[in-house]
Write a structure and sequence with these properties.
flat, 178 residues, 2 domains, mainly alpha
């Protein structure tokens, strides 16, 4: 007498707890959100300034839901550009250009932070977003020039020390949990 495996129940279309979100659901949701944003931008004045940021946040949300590093990269960059657009629109030169660069650098750093915090990492080279983040932020500092650069350096070193300390603490906590 042979025994056969019991039939495997079929999964319904759509999200399930066993296999995560399916790509077509994520793509469909992103298209609906983007289309809705463009529609809102036609009706509400100045809403178009928020479209890029909202698209970036949507990509970050999709990256977290699917735990897909491939969505995390454009999510961080587009979110940084979106914040940069908002900051540049509310400030004057030369600060607006520097603020845009700082926001873009933060978007790259966000890729690394979210990847580290949620365990969404590529097989190797998880720290790569910090390289463009550093150089873009440096370009932001240099674009300020004059007394502003001196002020940034005066207050920047304590911020760097705080950031490095926070990184070391987060890394220690994550290693302890592993």
């Amino acid at each position: 007498m042979t025994t056969s495996d019991p039939p495997t129940p079929s999964l319904p279309d759509g999200p399930s707890r066993r296999d995560g979100l399916r790509p077509e659901w994520v793509t469909g949701a992103i298209l609906i959100v983007v289309g809705g944003l463009f529609l809102v931008a036609q009706v509400i004045p100045n809403a178009s300034q928020f479209i890029v940021l909202l698209v970036g946040l949507g990509l970050l949300t999709a990256a977290l839901l699917t735990r897909n590093y491939g969505l995390l990269i454009p999510g961080g960059i587009v979110s940084g550009v979106g914040v940069g657009i908002l900051l540049a629109a509310t400030s004057s030169e030369p600060v607006s250009g520097a603020l845009f660069l700082f926001a873009l650098a933060a978007g790259f750093a966000l890729i690394w932070v979210i990847g580290l915090a949620f365990g969404i990492q590529p097989p190797q080279g998880a720290w790569w977003p910090l390289i463009p983040a550093f150089f873009i932020a440096l370009a932001g500092v240099l674009s300020l020039g004059g007394e502003t650069v001196a002020w940034v350096w005066q207050y920047g070193w304590p911020v760097v020390l705080i950031a490095v300390g926070a990184f070391l603490l987060i890394r220690a906590v994550l290693r302890r949990q592993a």
